[in-house]
Specification:
5-stranded parallel beta sheet; elongated; alpha/beta; Rossmann fold
Length: 204
């Protein structure tokens, strides 16, 4: 019999097909900025956006300053809204799996590096309403793989760390969760997810 009582899903890369390279590529083309420069600026500032330290406007202002782009600096449009809606694809098979797990008696939740705009979009798509626990990085003040986000989750949930199971597409996030005592699955595709859940004794 499985010890698992609560299964926690990532959003981007697990519940929604999304790659950060999609937005860096779009912004590179639209504002005529080297994508390497954008990626470097993202590495510097994205964690501040994800952890709620800055809002989207300030994020793009920082990217514009780092890439020396006046065109981007003068932009007023929500680029996250534009390009997330354009490129991201909800994974309805993973959503159905999460619903099946809930119907089979498991508690289910979210741990996501996300900011307010994309959170609103995923809500608009009705991908999250059935989850009982939602831990969004911009609301908590920490982002994965910072162990403090997992410590926050353990503190807030009515379960021991070894009763939790976390699913994420980034190996660094998976390893950090494991180091905090949370069993974790590295998501690569739907079939492998089902097989990995069975290895933990989790069935729908």
């Amino acid at each position: 019999m499985t010890k698992t009582k609560c299964i926690l899903f990532d959003i981007g890369g697990v519940l929604v097909d999304w790659h950060m390279s999609w937005i860096t590529s779009e912004v590179s083309k639209r504002f005529d900025i080297s994508e390497d420069l954008i990626i470097s600026a993202f590495d510097e500032h994205l964690h501040k956006l994800d952890s709620g330290k800055i809002d989207e406007f300030d994020f793009w202002q920082n990217i514009a300053i780092d890439t020396k782009s006046d065109l981007l600096k003068n932009n007023k449009e929500s680029l996250w809204d534009t390009y997330f809606r354009k490129n991201a694809i909800p994974k309805h098979d993973v959503k159905k799996l999460s619903i099946d797990l809930k119907n089979n008696g498991f508690n289910i939740g979210i741990i996501s590096n996300i900011e307010k705009v994309t959170h609103t979009i995923v809500d608009d798509w009705d991908m999250l309403s059935h989850f009982e626990h939602k831990f969004m990085s911009y609301q908590i003040g920490f982002s994965k793989p910072d162990p403090r986000i997992y410590e926050h989750v353990i503190q807030k949930l009515p379960y021991c760390a070894d009763e939790l199971l976390f699913i994420d597409d980034k190996p660094s996030n998976v390893e950090s969760a494991k180091n905090c005592g949370i069993s974790s699955i590295h998501f690569t595709n739907f079939d492998n997810l089902q097989s990995s859940l069975e290895q933990f004794g989790v069935t729908t």
